Amino acid sequence: MQRQNSFHYPSSPSARLRHRRRSNEGIPEDLKSNGSHLLVNDRNKYKSMLIRAYSSIWMIGGFALAIYLGHLFIMAMVVVIQIFMARELFNLLRRTHEDRQLPGFRSLNWYFFFTAMFFVYGRLLSQRLVNTVTTDKVLYLLVSSLVKYQMAICYFLYIAGFMWFILTLKKKMYKYQFGQYAWTHMILIVVFTQSSFTVANIFEGIFWFLLPATLIVINDIAAYFFGFFFGRTPLIKISPKKTWEGFIGASVTTIISAFMLAHIMGRFSWLTCPRKDLSTGWLHCDPGPLFTPEYYALPGWIPTWFPWKAVTILRVQWHAICLGLFASIIAPFGGFFASGFKRAFKIKDFGDSIPGHGGITDRMDCQMVMAVFSYIYHQSFVVSQGITVESIIDQILMNLTFDEQQLLFTKIGQMLQDRLIPQ
Amino acid sequence: MQRQNSFHYPSSPSARLRHRRRSNEGIPEDLKSNGSHLLVNDRNKYKSMLIRAYSSIWMIGGFALAIYLGHLFIMAMVVVIQIFMARELFNLLRRTHEDRQLPGFRSLNWYFFFTAMFFVYGRLLSQRLVNTVTTDKVLYLLVSSLVKYQMAICYFLYIAGFMWFILTLKKKMYKYQFGQYAWTHMILIVVFTQSSFTVANIFEGIFWFLLPATLIVINDIAAYFFGFFFGRTPLIKISPKKTWEGFIGASVTTIISAFMLAHIMGRFSWLTCPRKDLSTGWLHCDPGPLFTPEYYALPGWIPTWFPWKAVTILRVQWHAICLGLFASIIAPFGGFFASGFKRAFKIKDFGDSIPGHGGITDRMDCQMVMAVFSYIYHQSFVVSQGITVESIIDQILMNLTFDEQQLLFTKIGQMLQDRLIPQ
């Protein structure tokens, strides 16, 4: 949850001057630090670092609690973050003067937000919801028909909002209203892409959410400190505080951390097991080859010097290196994008929800890119996409009536019988 | 493919004056027709109607040819329309002065366009492509691994474009560039939502594409003529040429046409059978209860007056009425939206691809809303979502090993047992 202003800008006065000359288009803080105030600026820097550290500790604490409480609570955290992000972004391009003449126009945003929420979470969780309520027959019927018509219901909700928008169009406001409509859609796409992939990751096993999110945090903190102490060479014009030293230092730190963290996290079944329903109970599963330790003998000279003869490595640690590479090399572009956006629209932060950090959106830029990558990486390279015994059972539970299930059972039985008896 | 300027504005001079007073913000054509030019305006109206009719005949001819040639050709037509739409929309908010300073910036749009194309069509057609190449083992392996990694490939293509965008950001152009980036995404969503639902409909059976598309055309032509001859009462401020008379006349016409057309179209297996692969050969399938004629005896007094004793009705005709209702009541809002958008950004048409009609986008506004509805309606209320006892047996035979099949059998047995014994 830690980022922004990382790859901190050059700390020695001469380097800072050199740097300022290069990026002379400057942003407010840069301009404030003219020669005579260098010391004051340094003191401010430490003070702001302290505030940031303080809120960071609170955030990490809340985060750890959610992880401890389990999948549903992490999901609730994601939803809360998502609502805050949407609020920050909805307010961003809002103009009070125009809004006063358009009563109810803001509620349309939230109407679309909750329609999208029903659609996205409905699709993500329907399977698990059905799995959860199998014991009660009435509830089961209700839920499964809700699942069946979910797409149609969402479509009609959307169309109702669309018609509401058109019927409340007001003379001379067309451009503002269409602009807001498009902006609302962009926000919903950004916010829901992020959250839906994150939630999908959570249910694949907390590991696939926790490791990527942690790597982004580690990369940001490392970039901040490497930049703070060694930063000299500006990295990219759009984010003048970022330096190559911060970028490279952070990459190395992140990749090593990924390898080590995966080893630790990979040993807790609470983190590695997927969750098939919406309960919160204890999890047990076969760890599978991914999370089973493999022993590698060390080359001859190490055991003579050190007391170690072999290392144990989980196969998932190699995947973790890929995640680390992405988190440190590609994901920062999410941050560059956000910096550029803020510069384009001349805003300092997306909001002010977290003291010392700015808005929640400012903290989520790289997390979003990372969550999508983790999901696609997991689906494409970690699990076999295929049809498994479990996926077929899920389909049966969701789509067939009890009679059909019995018919299927009989047919499979016959099929197996036919194969056993040589013809 | 016919629409826009439908629900034609009041034709009698007094009604027109009354109408103009009400919508005095006016659009260019409205303003031109001041009192002394009423006759000239009427002549222009007939001339433009002739040009429109002429291009309409060409469009309908091309359309009919595509229907005759089959699914792949209809899909090709959809792709061509989609490319034209994207070109019109990409050019819409383009500013030449800024573009000259950003070499290569336009190609980014098309890069994203083709990435989206690969993603959407890949997902839609992958299963059918795999079904098509089952005979050649090498090709099969190639295609199925391409399908497996398709999502990852698309993600990397997108991320490459995203990084390209960030690395080519140019000082003082940020706002224009971010605006264009957002606009490109909005266009791609609109264009690909439309085309992907349309293509999905085509492969469910041409019927599910042809009937909705035809209903929109009929509704537009009917609204045009009803409005032209009877239009008096303005319908909606945003589209001052549309009248209640045109709207209601068109609705009745469309609903009756839907009922009758479904009866005709429902008798050709070329139109009703789904296509499971990418071949173009003849289609045969069991018509199913939807397309099987049912006999209804007529009440006593009709056979005494007329030579008919019973009518045959296909069950799909009742569904057609729902499509007709939507096409005539909700889909026009797509047109209102487009009118409002054009007014907001002070443009007359989205482009000039079709003489007498404006841009292709001007013709597709209602079609887009309709295509999405048809798909969702078909999936939710016409077919049972596809998962049946047979489809599950197919999956089991294709994907599970013998041991897995036995495991599945045991698990289903257990499941059924659990439900039978009251706990």
UniProtKB/TrEMBL annotation, chains A, B:
Pfam families associated with the record: CTP_transf_1 (PF01148)
Q: Which UniProt keywords apply?
A: Lipid biosynthesis, Lipid metabolism, Membrane, Nucleotidyltransferase, Phospholipid biosynthesis, Phospholipid metabolism, Transferase, Transmembrane, Transmembrane helix
Q: Any transmembrane segments, and where?
A: 57-86, 107-126, 146-169, 181-200, 206-231, 243-265, 316-338
**Region ranges (Disordered):** 1-21
- In this chain, composition skew of type Polar residues spans 1-14
Q: Which PROSITE patterns match?
A: CDS
Q: Which GO terms describe its biological process?
A: CDP-diacylglycerol biosynthetic process
Q: Signal: present as a keyword of the record?
A: no
Q: Which residues form a coiled coil?
A: none
Q: Could you tell me the EC number(s) of this protein?
A: 2.7.7.41
> Which cofactors are named for this entry?
Mg(2+)
Q: Family, per the entry?
A: Belongs to the CDS family.
What's the name of the protein?
Phosphatidate cytidylyltransferase
Organism per entry: Cucurbita moschata (Winter crookneck squash)
> What gene does this protein come from?
LOC111439319
